[in-house]
Structures
1.
Amino acid sequence: MASKSSAADELRSAVGGILERGEEVVGVFLDELLENLHVRDEISKTVRRAAGARKRVEGNIESILTLLSVPTRSDYKHLLRRIDELQGSLVNINMKLDRLLAERAAPPPLPTPGAKPVARRAAKRVASRSR
């Protein structure tokens, strides 16, 4: 059993050494490759073309989904924004309603001694004008 374990360990270390050496070689190769301006320019052009192609594919897929009456990602995002707006409006309405209910439930302020209530004064003014 010990010989199988040591053979497996030797194999692992040999494979690990090969992998490390391969990583070094690939790293050096990529460094030298990217130092070349022409290669870097071609890589950046390729990346830009790939991004453009992806946008065109996404646009085509969205058009097809729209023709099939299937909601698209933009439809979904639009609905989420609208739901957030409605939720904010509901929160505002609830806050205003709570404030109104609290004002209605609060007892009226006590009149100060010697002062006439405002409602009685207004009623007297209206009565005197109608005469």
Note: The two ends are 121 Å apart (CA to CA).
2.
Amino acid sequence: MIQYLNLPPIPTRLLDEFEERSGLCPNMEDNFVKTSEHCQGITDWCRENVCPDLFYGVQIMQGMVPKHTDRSHSNLVPECKLVYLVDPGGANVKTRFWDGDMPLREFIIEPLRWHLIQVNVVHSVEGIENNRKRWGVTTQMLHKELI
């Protein structure tokens, strides 16, 4: 459900630049936002150093993110996403996978490492500390017509 990958870390200067420019979306009305604003430097670096065929954006969470499966821009359910978690939002924040009302597994994801996460399984994020935000760089496959 979570698999760490040996990919290069995103340079701190790019992460700091995003955090400064975005302010980590200080007026979030929901507990989750995904944005491609303020992250062109991150996108350019990732396309050059990780994979050129992915769409990169930043996701920011606060509070508890309830059970869900991820959706793509085309409203399809992707199987997995590549994520670089920058700030977990606290030391004990858990990503929990579910089968109905029964928890299957839970993970405390390590920051500043790339990982694949299976997002077509119901999951939640629990334990983000008050006045903290969990954020990281996430990906989505670009859909190209194959000839």
Note: The mean pLDDT is 89.
